[in-house]
Amino acid sequence: MLTLPPSTRIYMATLRVDGRKGIDGLANLVRSQFKQDPFDGHVYVFVTRRGDGLRLLFWDRSGYLLVLKRLERGTFRVPWDEREGPPRTVESAELMLILEGIDLRDAKRRPRWTPRPRAA
Predict the structure, then answer these.
(1) pTM for the predicted model, two decimal places
(2) Quick check: is 70 in a domain?
(3) How far apart are CA 44 and CA 40, in angstroms?
(4) Would residue 42 count as lying in a domain?
């Protein structure tokens, strides 16, 4: 399980990528498709074309870290229709469920409480 600080954002590609891409190829995708800096410390998630692999790329102040996961049966499911578009942001809890191979398409999020701003 990954433990990420709350300031870390998780960006997930909307289209699948070539499963042979390494650190440099994925970092180039972050620059070109995400329009982000791969050195910013955020996590970038890519699903392979076959759908059985997931790659997480992030910079940890001293070098890139590339995490690979391959499902032996089944495929990873993202909670949206796959079409070209900007990357999606997901929460760490959603990422953990996706890493477990859980399909979140029919999952419903309960409304969250947010504090009201104080009147001055």
Answers:
(1) 0.82
(2) yes
(3) 11
(4) yes
